[in-house]
Amino acid sequence: HQSKLDFFCKLGYGKQDICKVLENLGQEALEDDVLKELIRMGSKPQALENQVQPSHLKLVARGSCSTTPGLKWLGEDESDSSDALRPIVIDGSNVAMSHGNKEVFSCWGIQLAVDWFRERGHTYIKVFVPLWRKEPPRQDSPIADQHILEELEKQSILVYTPSRKVKGKRVVCYDDRYIVKVAYEKDGVIVSNDHYRDLQNENPEWKWFIEQRLLMYSFVSNRFMPPDDPLGRHGPTLSNFLSKKPVLPEKKWQLCPYGKKCTYGNKCKFYHPERIHQAQLSVADELRAKIKVPLSLGKEEE
């Protein structure tokens, strides 16, 4: 019943009309029969009732349940505001060891990082951790809050990189390569304090990507804090860094250090608030204008 209701809602028909037809024909009625009954009742899709919309947008309106003219195709998620945000790929080992002061693999640090990006609206978040971290902790590799890894794995956020034992020795795949490769393919952001210099030397495209898309961070009193200027003072803000379509800041004019004593006139590149309603003439032009005024007055008197 719910699937048929959703299907005909996407076609633009009202819920009341659909429910009436389903009650008359029964829940096992075919979609063609329901459609014929809706047409017989005189029910029309919203896209056909609203004649103001252009003809090329009618199909879009019928594909969505909203009455506003949509710009998305059938099957797309209407309320997917996360399209403007970049995918996030987290170096789980780096984050966990940083939160544990490089002594303990703190899984709570990973949870703090994931929650921070969730609150911002990011939906694609992946955390990479070696598979051997699922094993019971040992004295040489202590792990805190290991149950968090299981919860994140159930949420399809945490991904284990392969590892196995050969003749009693652990063979571990390079998890950094997974992190950089997935972030590069998704055109996302890498969350880590590692610079991945070996991978930068390996691939020139990865080198540029790591330099431009690496988001470093700090933990301050169990608070995940990335910098407001990830690429330096003259780089983009954190919001623009995490967005696919950065918003350019408004140009702020710098006040002229000379103020009213400035002699550059309209050639001055700084801002003069006192000249907003004045024609910014050069000093020479201002002097000429002042000289012309008494001459014209003298001619009128004569």
Give your account of this protein's structure.
This protein is of the alpha/beta class and 302 residues long. It folds into 3 domains: 1-41; 88-242, Rossmann fold; 259-290, no CATH class. 40% of the residues lie in helices and 12% in strands. The strands form 4 sheets. The chain has a 5-stranded parallel β-sheet, sandwiched between helices. β6 (163-166) and β7 form a beta hairpin. The longest helix has 19 residues, at 283-301. The model is unreliable at 47-80 (pLDDT under 50).
Question: Keywords, please?
Answer:
302 residues; zinc ion binding; single chain; alpha/beta; five-stranded parallel beta sheet; 12% strand; Rossmann fold
Short note summarizing the structure:
With 302 residues, the chain is α/β, with parallel strands linked by helices.
